Q: What sequence folds into this?
């Protein structure tokens, strides 16, 4: 381990070690979209539950129209939801609409385009019909008891509609982890404040919380704690009381702040796993556990806090939330020269344009980890392995896509 810095891959696997999806909760079908199924979904009914017309037309006996034109007596009407109660006999038809049960005695539906009314109550078939045409058989979609959706599946629009159609008013989904987020720093103010001398507006936690929610978490904003052990400790207690599965702090993790957050966690009996990783931005990243909760201490520098959230917080949340986490890493080429890298894995903010199907990434010449605007303008982070040699335009690179 170079200079006591933990490689990113190892830090990530240590962070995720022993982390399993949370248990399940039952939610109403109208709240289940976007969640992960904790249990498989079976059909509570058969769909369609009866032989249904697939078209607007006439329910008939195929043999009656084998030699068109053929005249039929219209003996009733069957709109969707209002079945025709009787049965049809030879030479008879029932006016039928899409979704209505096909009446007894009929074996086919003649579409209305292939008919004409020749007298009140008399329809003429202009074409023959294949027996069974335009009928959706009972159980065409699914049959009661059949498995429809697997546990672990994302409830997307089609899964949600399918579950509703199978008559589920509620679904068992994986609980969403609660992520409590705390900003630390004497200099920080909430957005919208009157900013005095030496003060800045706290930004990190808003981006961090959004990344957590997008990965499947609920979030609790613990606000801003000054650089004070008691205040930080009180905020962490609030997170514990609220049942947070993950407690994220920002700032106060570098030597300049005397590692306040680390001190507070240790004093509370927390176990620290690592606090320095071979990453830029983000060297002072801290991870550990406290009272069974995961602690992630993010660096205060805004870009570092967000990049570390993409790389570490996202997969941690996803794991607890029962989601597959696959970082969107693609291959591109450099748009300009870059210098050789040092011992830390680098995540360089880069503008990305697609040219002839190739992603061309041009890292910003300035990569200061306080500069959020460059991050907001970046389409991707170019991942530079430790000690990667200098590269020139056209050389391949790996891109962690941001958009
Ligand atoms: P620290 O890790 O506390 O030493 O902070 C490093 C740098 O990040 C300092 O310039 C802080 O002012 C800045 N910083 C810390 N927390 C935040 C925050 N929540 N929002 C914006 N900047 C922050
Ligand atoms: Mg600070």
A:
């Amino acid at each position: 381990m170079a200079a006591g810095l933990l490689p990113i891959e190892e830090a990530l696997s240590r962070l995720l070690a022993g982390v399993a999806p949370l248990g399940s909760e039952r939610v109403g079908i109208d709240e289940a979209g976007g969640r992960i199924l904790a249990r498989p979904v079976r059909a509570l009914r058969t769909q369609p539950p009866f032989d249904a017309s697939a078209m607007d037309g006439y329910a008939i006996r195929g043999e009656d129209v084998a030699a068109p034109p053929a005249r039929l007596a219209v003996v009733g009407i069957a709109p969707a939801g209002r079945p025709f109660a009787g049965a049809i006999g030879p030479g008879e038809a029932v006016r039928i609409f899409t979704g209505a049960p096909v009446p007894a005695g009929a074996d086919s539906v003649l579409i209305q385009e292939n008919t004409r009314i020749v007298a009140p109550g008399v329809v003429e078939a202009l074409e023959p019909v294949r027996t069974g045409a335009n009928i959706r058989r009972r159980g065409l979609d699914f049959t009661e008891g059949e498995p429809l959706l697997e546990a672990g599946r994302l409830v997307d629009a089609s899964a949600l509609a399918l579950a509703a159609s199978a008559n589920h008013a509620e679904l068992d989904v994986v609980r969403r982890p609660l992520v409590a987020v705390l900003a630390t720093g004497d200099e920080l103010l909430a957005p919208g404040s009157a900013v005095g001398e030496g003060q800045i507006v706290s930004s990190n936690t808003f981006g961090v919380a959004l990344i957590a929610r997008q990965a499947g978490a609920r979030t609790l904003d613990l606000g801003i704690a000054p650089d004070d052990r008691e205040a930080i400790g009180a905020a962490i207690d609030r997170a514990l009381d609220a049942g947070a599965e993950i407690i994220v702090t920002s700032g106060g993790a570098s030597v300049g702040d005397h590692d306040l957050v680390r001190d507070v966690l240790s004093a509370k009996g927390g176990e620290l796993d690592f606090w320095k990783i071979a990453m830029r931005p983000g060297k002072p990243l801290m991870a550990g556990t406290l009272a069974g909760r995961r602690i992630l201490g993010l660096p205060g520098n805004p870009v570092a806090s967000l990049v570390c959230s993409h790389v570490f917080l996202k997969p941690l949340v996803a794991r607890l939330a029962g989601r597959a986490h696959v970082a969107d890493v693609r291959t591109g080429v450099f748009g300009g020269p870059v210098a050789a890298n040092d011992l830390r894995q680098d995540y360089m903010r880069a503008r990305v344009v697609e040219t002839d199907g190739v992603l061309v990434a041009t890292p910003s010449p300035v990569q200061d980890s306080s500069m959020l605007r460059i991050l907001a303008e970046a389409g991707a982070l170019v991942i530079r392995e430790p000690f990667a040699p200098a590269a020139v335009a056209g050389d391949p690179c790996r891109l962690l896509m941001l958009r």
Q: What stands out?
A: Residues 184-185, 227, 251-252, 257, 300 surround magnesium ion (ligand 2) (CB under 6 Å). The two ends are 33 Å apart (CA to CA). The longest strand covers residues 345-355.
